[in-house]
Amino acid sequence: MKYTYYGQSCFLLEAAGKKLLFDPFISHNPIAKNIDTTAIEADYILVSHGHADHVADLVTLAKQTQATVIAMPEIIDWISKQGIEKVHGMNFGKFTFDWGVVRMVPATHSSSLPDGSYGGNPAGFVLEVDSKQIYFAGDTGLTIEMKVLAEIYNLDYAILPIGGNYTMDVDDALIATKYFDCDKVIGVHYNTFPVIEIDTQTALDKFAREKKTLLLPAIGETISL
């Protein structure tokens, strides 16, 4: 399984012969200016919520890649009106695709679409693919509901927001790892804007002191999971 980071909360998972793109916000992200969006390929695009820093490139990339978009019904309705036909609407629950299982789980946040309309509930995803279990929390604060995941899964990786202000910060993310019992974290949603800038070395040191791994790939970097 490969993970490529595109900045903010946008990343690509390559697993089970599929390319899964999450929360596409690249061309409008000043720190992702070196990413060539025209070269991005995807079979599925998974969207956690409707805020612009998660959907700014959604319609463009859905048309370019002909990927199937997985999202809340309200987001599906919004993109359908813009000509996107390959869609799979979900809500909190799970569905088995031919490449793996996706469960949509709650996130503590808000959600509206770029036109100001209601974006449905904010969410995260748990994927079971290539014999691994991966949790992408989406934009969320620390919530006790995360403890339920430990009863259902043996998570291999958790992809967590760590920038604070709008979401969990590094300290809250560490607490979250104890809730759902996962020692390997990939950080997202940090350093894009001044209000979510972090000291990356301090973050790495905090995780190391708890004997946990925090991975912070550079924008455009691909790592193996």
From TrEMBL:
Any one GO molecular function term: hydrolase activity
Metallo-beta-lactamase domain location: 7-189
Keyword Hydrolase: yes
UniProt keyword terms in alphabetical order: Hydrolase
Stretches that traverse the bilayer: none
InterPro entries named among the record's database cross-references: Metallo-B-lactamas (IPR001279), RibonucZ/Hydroxyglut_hydro (IPR036866), UPF0173 (IPR022877), UPF0173_UPF0282_UlaG_hydrolase (IPR050114)
Annotated NCBIfam families: PRK00685.1 (NF001911)
Family, as annotated: Belongs to the UPF0173 family.
Listed name of the protein: UPF0173 metal-dependent hydrolase SAMN05421827_103243
Native organism taxonomy: Bacteria, Pseudomonadati, Bacteroidota, Sphingobacteriia, Sphingobacteriales
